[in-house]
Amino acid sequence: MSTAPGKKLRVGILGCGGIANAHAKALLQIPEYEIAAYCDVYRASAERFKNEYGKGHGEVFEDYHAMFEKMDLDVVAICLPPFAHADEVDVAAKHGVHIMIEKPIALDVEAARRMVDAVAKAKVKSQVGFMMRFQDGIERLKELLAAGRGPAVQYVGRYYCNSLHSPWWRMLDKSGGQMVEQIIHQFDLCRYLLGTPEQVFAYTGNVGHQDVENYTVEDVSGVVAKFKGGAVGVLTGTNCAIPGKWLAPWTFVARGLTAELNGGATTITHTDRAVPYTEEIRSEKNVIHAEHLDLLRAIREDGETRTPMSEGLESLRLVLGARASGESGMPVNL
Questions:
Q1: Where are the domains of the chain?
Q2: How far apart are CA 156 and CA 314, in angstroms?
Q3: pLDDT digits (tens, 9 = 90+) for 94-110
Q4: What number of other Cβ atoms are within 10 A of residue 171's Cβ?
Q5: 11 to each of 3, 8, 99, 315, 320, how far by Cα in Å?
Q6: CA–CA distance, 112 with 117 (Å, rounded to integer)
């Protein structure tokens, strides 16, 4: 692997499905990157990516072991569904390849911990695809908290959609469920803003899809999490909302401010003064593009990304605690 200044970083895309399209488009907008390899168990999918995003250039693989052996890659974008994760992180790390990986990084804590250990041992950079951390409104909130505003009091997040998705998504052993595969974005933001979770309690159920064959995941959930210092997170989700829409609004409250994301704008009302005032933050930022830029910065500066693999482990730990609580009907201590 060579990451000398001025040299383009060679990227491999592992998993040429839906979300990989967004990553490929983002990578093409960064001059410091070049996509050199495409890998998918379905060769036709990798060939399509090569033709669409590589204009016919790049190598195609069905086996990522062969891709890492043959190609001198600097970065890999791992865009696999949850059930398809195996040893790809370990193999990439052993080859000195920096890692961009979609969430959730695994379906169990032990597998996620092995990924964290592999990255740490190889000293490669990693970025987990919690792109909501790169929203302009979230960045502004982190600035305010770092400057002394707070403490954080509450985070309320929702995730609403209405889709049957891919067949694997509906199966608990393949996706981990809606909380693990989708609402984990809200769990991650809750952690990012509130800190260390101590206990979580959840109600979950399948209310609207009992007649759908092989639909074994929850389609409604309500979660309350208690954080160190006393802050409370409230997370709700459903797959019974508006067809064709994926909605993820949130509200954050700290001493001195209240912030809300609804639609395309974040409003922050500053309440730490006699006359409160509100600032509005509108943005059309491509947050996946921002993730890749952040990984590039970490590689070039030998720094840390905003969301390293260890953060993927901790957000997974929280959401799996919520799932376990939903199954048992009891709070889970973290």
A1: 9-129+289-306, 132-285+316-333
A2: 19
A3: 999 999 999 999 999 99
A4: 16
A5: 12, 9, 10, 26, 31
A6: 9
Global pTM? 0.95
> CA-to-CA distance for 171 and 165, rounded, in angstroms?
11
C-alpha to C-alpha distance for 289 and 42, rounded to whole angstroms: 26
Strands 152-160 and 232-238 come out as: parallel
Task: Give me the pLDDT at residue 284, please.
Answer: 85
Angle at 285 between CA 280 and CA 38, to 5 degrees: 160
User: Average pLDDT of 31-56?
Assistant: 97
C-alpha span between 78 and 302 (Å, rounded): 21
Phi and psi based region of residue 309 (left: phi greater than 0; alpha: psi -120 to 50; beta: remaining)? alpha
How many residues would you count in the chain?
Answer: 334
Confirm if 68 and 93 have CB atoms less than 8 A apart.
no
Helices (DSSP H) in 97-235: which residue ranges? 109-122, 136-146, 172-175, 178, 184-194
Query: Which amino acid, 90?
Result: D
- pLDDT at 262 (0 to 100): 83
pLDDT of residue 5: 59
Contacts of 295 (CB under 8 A, 6+ apart): 75, 98, 100, 125, 127, 305
Instruction: For the chain, count helices (H), then strands (E).
Output: 11, 15
Within its chain, how far is the Cα of 55 from the centroid? Answer: 29
Query: Which CATH code fits 132-285+316-333?
Result: 3.30.360.10
Which residue type occupies 141? Answer: L
Measured between alpha carbons, how far is 105 from 91 in angstroms, rounded to an integer? 15
DSSP state of 169: G
The residues facing 233 across adjacent strands are: 155, 225
Q: If you classify domain 9-129+289-306 with CATH, what class do you get? A: alpha beta
Amino acid of residue 147: A
Do residues 67 and 14 touch, judged by C-beta distance below 8 A? yes
- Asked if the domains at 9-129+289-306 and 132-285+316-333 fall in one CATH topology, the answer is no
Structure tokens at 200: 């979580």
What separation in angstroms does the CA of 6 have from each of 3, 32, 33?
A: 8, 8, 11
**Separation CA 268–CA 213 (nearest Å):** 44
